[in-house]
Design goal:
By secondary structure, the chain is α/β, with parallel strands linked by helices. 37% of the residues lie in helices and 22% in strands. The chain has a 7-stranded mixed sheet with strand order 3-2-1-4-5-7-6. Helix 2 runs parallel beside helix 9 (199-219) and helix 8 crosses helix 9.
Length: 236
């Protein structure tokens, strides 16, 4: 693997979005069993929320060695459970005997230029009956300078995300999340047009908008939102 350095600046900014991480974490927690692969684990901020320690193994796969060092530090001081380990690399670097019960992409797939090849490659390491979980920013018409600045190639809707998934996987759930955040994103896209959200804006979104979305999204049957969440299961 060639040396890789992540160009984004949002990892620390979003690391304390506790309500947001708890929201989608509760929706996917039951699928995080056995051996879990987290692709593009970043600084391990999402790992801290999602990994509860009952998994057999949780592999944080991250191509940036500097970010991987931050994950290793969290493992060494116990900020993430002992079942976690890190590895520098991408899905292409996985060994033929690397098998996982669940593979997750948490706001990562949009950073990968050839997303279809990525998903095809990684699902070859998914056990029969295993789950692929993808969370990604929704709606290409919301693409902003901030997306471009942090290395996003695209945003997804249900159809475009589904089109990246191999036919050997069956869709279990495909929904939009954060309807209130969608309205805020519309305001930023067409009014504010800011390149980077401030810490205060992130806190407002996480502490005020996410609790509202968590109540309203089910009423709207998860039909609106600024993020899309998909869960697929590999055929046995």
């Amino acid at each position: 693997m060639q040396d890789y350095s992540y160009i984004g600046s949002e990892l620390e900014l979003f690391s304390q979005a506790y309500n947001w991480k708890n929201y989608y974490g509760n929706l996917i927690q039951k699928y995080l069993q056995g051996r879990v692969l987290e692709v593009g684990a970043g600084i391990g901020a999402t790992t801290e929320f999602l990994c509860k320690g009952h998994q057999k193994e949780w592999l944080c796969l991250e191509p940036d060695p500097i970010l991987t060092e931050k994950i290793d530090l969290k493992i060494s001081v116990g900020r993430v459970p002992a079942c976690c380990k890190s590895r520098v690399g991408t899905s292409a670097d996985l060994a033929s005997n690397d098998w996982f019960d669940t593979i997750i992409y948490m706001d990562v797939l949009e950073h990968i230029k050839d997303d279809r090849t990525e998903v095809k490659t990684v699902t070859q390491h998914l056990s029969a009956g295993g789950y692929l979980v993808v969370l990604a920013p929704a709606h290409q018409w919301l693409f902003t300078p901030f997306d471009r600045a942090i290395g996003h190639y695209r945003r997804y809707n249900k159809q475009s995300l589904s089109s990246t998934i191999p036919r050997s996987l069956n869709c279990i759930q495909l929904i939009y999340l954060d309807s209130i955040g969608l309205l805020a994103s519309l305001g930023n896209r067409f009014v504010l047009k800011s390149k980077t959200p401030t810490k205060q804006q992130i806190q407002l979104w996480d502490k005020v908008m996410i609790p509202l979305s968590r109540n309203i999204d089910p009423i709207l049957q998860y039909s609106l939102g600024k993020s899309v969440l998909g869960i697929w299961q590999k055929q046995s």
